[in-house]
Structures are given as C-alpha cells and as structure tokens.
Amino acid sequence: MNRVPLSSRISLGLRFCAAVLITLAFLFPVYWLAMNSFKTADEIYASPPVWWPAALQWSNYLVLFKDGDAVSVFNSLVVASVSTVLAMSIGTLCAYSLARYKTGGDDLSNWIISQRMVPPIAVVFPIFLLYVFLGWVDTYIGMILLYTAFNLPYVIWMMRGYIQDIPRSLEEAALVDGCTPWEVFYKVVLPMCKGGLFATAIFAFIFAWNEFLFALVLTRTEVTTYTVQVTHYFGGQSNFWTKIAAMSVLGTLPVFIAVVFMQRYLVRGISLGAVKG
Amino acid sequence: MADLLIQGLHKYYGNNHVVKGIDLSIPAGEFTVLVGQSGCGKSTLLRTIAGLEYADQGSLSIAGQRVNDMPPRDRDIAMVFQNYALYPYMTVFDNIAFGLRARKTPAADIPGKVQRAADMLAISHLLERYPRQLSGGQLQRVAIGRAVVRDARLYLFDEPLSNLDAQLRDEMRGEIKRLHQELGKTMIYVTHDQIEAMTLADRIVLMREGQIEQQGAPLELFEHPRTRYVAGFLGSPSMNFIPAVLHSDSQGLNAQIVPGLSLRLPPGRFGHLQSQTGMAVELGIRPEHMRKQASEHEDIARINVDIELVQPTGSRTFVEFKLGATATVAELLARDVHRSGERLALEIDMNRVIVIDPASGLVIANGATV
Q1: Interface of A with B in 165-204 (CB under 8 A)
Q2: Best mutation site among B81, B82, B157 for testing chain A: the one with the most A CBs within 10 Å?
Q3: pLDDT in tens, B85-139
Q4: Residue A192's closest chain B neighbor by CA?
Q5: Which residues 57-76 of B are in CB contact (within 8 Å) with A?
Q6: Which end of chain A is more exposed for a tag (fewer CB within 10 A), N or C?
Q7: Do residue A178 and residue B71 have CB atoms under 8 angstroms apart?
Q8: Is the dihedral of CA B61, B63, B64, B70 positive or negative?
Q9: Contact at CB, B72 and A175, closer than 8 angstroms
Q10: Which residues pair with B329 in a beta bridge?
Q11: Sheet holding B65-66, edge to edge
C-alpha cells in the first residue's frame, strides 16, 4: 500500500468531516419536514423536540386525501407539466430560429431574456384584471398560459445556447443528404441537444411547480395549486403543522422523483451549457 | 455535356465580396480541385454549389438545369465535410444510411448499399460502433462512406483531409483517388494543400481573392503558370523569384541579377524579349531546376554560391544561398552537398526558367515542357 503523508491524511480527514457536516446541515430541514408530517400535533410542539415520532401518523396524509386537499398536487402537476411541454415546444423552435436564422438579430434575443427580469409583483395586478376580463381566473388554461409565458424566455435563452453549440456542418450534412429544414430540426437538432432539453425542462417544471405569487392571486377553488393550498393551513388562531408538513412532503415528492430519474441528463445538460464545445 | 456550369457567380457576406465573378464548366466524370490560400473563396464557392450558400449573382446549373433557387436536397449532390459531420448519437451504419433513409430508399435496399460502401472503404467491421469509438482516419472513411453510398451526380469534398495527420493524409488521398477511378463520378474537391491538388486533380482551379487565377491540368499549371502567383503557389519548395534586369550584348540576351552576375537566356525561348532590354523582371527558378555542375549543355547558366543552410530530406537535400541579394533554394542530390558554408558550383537549366513582369505579375516568357 502506498504511504500517504500524515499531513495529507489529516487534510483529507478534515475535508471529509466538513463535507459530512455541510451535508447534514442541508439535509436537516428535509428530515425535519418528513418527520413532522408523521407526528401528532403534540409531538410537534413538544420540548425538547421529538426526533422520531412514537407512531407514524399516516392519518396526517389520509386526511388530505379525504378532504380533497391533495387535489391541489394534481392541479400543480397538470399546470406545471402542460406549461413545461408548451414552453419547451415553442421555446425550442424560437431558439432554433434565433440561433440559426438570426431572427431579429441580437436585439431580439436580448429583449427576450430581459423579459425574465421583470419583477412578477409589477405585473400581477394588470394580469389579474386581464384575466378577470377574459374569464380565465381560477382556470387551467389561465395558469398554463401564464406559466408558459413566464418560462418561455428562460427556455429560449437556454436552448439557444445549446443549439449554437451544435456544429453547423451536422445540419448542413443533413440538408445535403436530403432532409427538409423541418427534418433537420427533429432528426438532428433535437437529438443533438437532448441533454439540454431535459435540463431546461426540469428547471422550467420546477419554476412552475414552485410558483406561488400568481397562483395565490389567480386561483380560488378550482385549480388551487399545492403551494397555495399549504397557506390555507396557516390560521389566525392556530397553524395546522401536521397538515402543512404532510402537504409539503406531497408537493416535494414529484420534483424529487423527477430529478432522481433525470439526474444523468441534468448534470450533463448543465455542464454542456457551461462549457462550450 | 458539362455536369456543372457556373456563370458569372458572385457571393457577398455583407460588404465582403467573397466570390467575384466565377465562370467554370466541369465535365461529367472529372475530378476538379479548387485550390487556393484560406480566404480565397474556394469553400464559399463549393458551399454555393451545394446550395448551403445563396448565389447573389450569376447562374449555377447542374446537368443542364438551373439550380440557383433549388434547396440542397434536390440538387443530387453528396458532400464530405472537413470535420466529418457524423451524428454522434447514431452508429456508423445509421450514419451511412442516413442519406438513403432521408431520400426514402426502400428499407430492403439499405443494408446492401451500406455494406457495399463500407466494403469499398474497408470499414465493414465498424458498422455497429459509434463515432466516438473511432479514430480520425476511420471517422473520415465513414464520412466518405456516407457520401458514396448515395448515387449522386456530384460529389463535393470540403478539405476532407485537413484534420488528419500527415501519414493518414497520404493514405486517404490515395483512397479518394481510387474511389474516383472506381466510381467515375464528377467530384469537386476543395483544399489549400497544393500537393493534394497536384496528385488528385484531373484539373486544378487555382483561386485567388475570389477569382480564378488559372485553371488546367496539374502539369500545365505547374509548367506553364500564367502568373507569378500560380508559379509560386504550386511546387514544394516553392519557386525562387530573383529580381533581374534584361540586357542585350553581342552574344544575346542576359538577365543581370547584380553587376557581374548575369544569366544567359536561351534565344530560342526568350527571343521575343530582345526588344525589352533594360526592363526590370523577375526570374522564376524552381529549386529542382538547379543542380551541381555536370553538363556541358549550352542553355545552362553556371553560378558559384556559398551554401548558408542545408536541409536534408533523404535522397534530396534543400540548400539555401544568396543569388544576388535574394535568398534562393535549390534541390540537389543528397550526395552533392555536405554542410553549410560550403562553396558550390551550380548550374541552372535556363530552358525551365520563367520570366515575370513584376509590375503586372504576369509571366511573359514560360519555360519549356519536359
């Protein structure tokens, strides 16, 4: 076995300890949230804190399904998925047009990304009035279109970068080989930026999934998303911490699962965007 | 009939006039090489033929049909790109079959055609691999395979060998020449490498600053260059250009390099310059047209030079010396020269010397064909 000098062994040990401590610090809120969702109300308020509930309170979850509150997770799923698919479809096409056909020159792409910088609070009430006029308040279509519009600049900007990184000769070879411009798009461009597509889609989905401000203003009872639903458990007299915790776990699970399954693409997509070539 | 006819072709990138009025007619089955320094417009011309660039002016016809407004897929061309342009997410088989599928070739015919192309290029054993698992030479074979698998009218090569190392380049050059002989198709090949141009071409089209400087068979350009540029471009090491002044005396016409150093120009070949006495010219002398003094031929000029630099290459050795004030390279037999600093008696085959008018860059007297 190779002899490792003492100093570098100590340094390795210290770094390892630091890594463990940092990981624990970041994991603690997740652990606490999950534990709270299985505690009784008394256990939540107990001092000193209860680290592990005496019995797992599955009823905290059951009540959410019985009362129909869990539908809000379904609403979030519908709104976030459909708006992500829409934003990805439209955005990738726009990005291709910007990247390869120089549509609108540099100005248009800069203007598009500038839309991302608008503070949502500045537009929430004009949009509310518009939605009242259109009859879109508390509807799927209203929320889906809104999140699509919000995600578009991000999707366009990210996908434009990924598409620019594709060697142009690949597309030209396909054109010469007999493809129409549309075939070039879906036979060459889309497969070439698959990693970027997944990474961008996940971020777009997470944005729509976590969005709170517009959901709070624009939903009532029909398409309440889970982020808004959680706030219903904060009362003037008391907070229903068991429900808040259980609902939050339900709301975290889909994104957690998505990221676990797409981690491969996510890491590759992000590193592709960061490093040219 | 010409397979490709280009008339008055112009191409601009913004204000940059890249291709300036090209007229070119390429007969069926010919191997044409577009050669020139980078930026001379040769690649742009090729891309315009392919339909990847739009011709701003002029007309382009393939097999008698005007194709200016025709998209690349309808031009019946196949193209090999410099950086291979293989799809990394497809196997070699799928890469080669891509064009066939895009053109709706019956699925049953595809494996046979791919196999034939792969056999021709000796890549049959690689069909199931992905491009990332291949070496540079193999990648270029696959890229060529993707072109030859199709029965196209016109095959375009855009500097296909410039990413390969020297040895592989020689090998692939032979391969491409063999392919042309086997297929007998019209091929247009772009390169900046004059050796590739000389070895591959039926005809060289030498381009300079967006125009055709000269075109013709490789040896025709080599031995009868029309301009100083052509003379200097072809040949390695390149031609020496020695400033001189024409002089007549009782014995005939001389080119005086410096007072006391004159080279006699044989009257048979240079007689028409007799009246140009006093004119400043440049003599174009190829390194291989100088050798150690041996013969008694009358059209030989003898000079004594001090060798400054010796570069052996094996059987031949390049030596550098001053002729007048001009650094000059001669290609000698390796045994004729030993070290720098040596004084050597050389002879120049004056029948092979060309005379250039430095003002216009035109060759005003050409060397003999051998």
Answers
A1: 167, 169-170, 172-180, 183, 187-188, 191-192, 194
A2: B81
A3: 999 999 999 999 999 999 999 999 999 999 999 998 999 999 999 999 999 889 9
A4: B89
A5: 71-73
A6: N
A7: no
A8: negative
A9: yes
A10: B320
A11: B16-27, B2-13, B57-62, B65-66
- Tell whether B131 is within 8 A of chain A (Cβ): no
Minimum Cα–Cα distance from A173: chain B residue: B85
Of B158, B166, B124, B165, nearest in space to B141 by CA? B124
Determine contact: B110 vs chain A, CB below 8 A: no
Q: What is the C-alpha to C-alpha distance for residues B34 and B197, in angstroms, rounded to an integer?
A: 8
pLDDT over 80 (residue A1): no
Residues 262-301 of B with CB under 8 A from A: none
Query: For residue B88, what is the nearest residue in chain A, using CA coordinates?
Result: A192
Which residue type, as a one-letter code, is found at position B210? G
Which of A131-134's residues contact partners 24+ apart within 8 Å by CB, and which partners?
Answer: A131/A218
Name B322's bridge partners. Answer: B327
Interface A–B counts its CB contacts (< 8 A) at 60
User: Which residue shows structure tokens 């990138």?
Assistant: B13
Instruction: Indicate if the pLDDT at residue A277 is higher than 70.
Output: no
Q: Can you tell me the distance from the alpha carbon of B219 to that of B161, in angstroms, rounded to the nearest whole number?
A: 22
Q: Do B102 and A174 touch (CB under 8 A)?
A: yes
Q: What is the ipTM of this complex?
A: 0.85
pTM: 0.84
> Cβ contacts of residue B161 below 8 Å, gap of 6+?
B140, B168, B169, B172, B173, B191, B193, B196
How many whole angstroms separate alpha carbon B162 and alpha carbon A224? 61
Residue B200 in contact with residue B177, Cβ under 8 Å?
yes
For B204-226, b/e burial (b = at least 16 CB within 10 A) is bbbbbebebbbbbebeebbbbbb
Query: What is the distance of C-alpha B337 from the center of its chain?
Result: 30
Residue that the structure tokens 């690949």 belong to: A170
DSSP helix/strand/coil, A233: coil
Sign of CA dihedral B337, B342, B347, B349: positive
Of the candidates B227, B230, B263, B268, the one whose C-alpha atom is nearest the C-alpha of residue B244 is B263
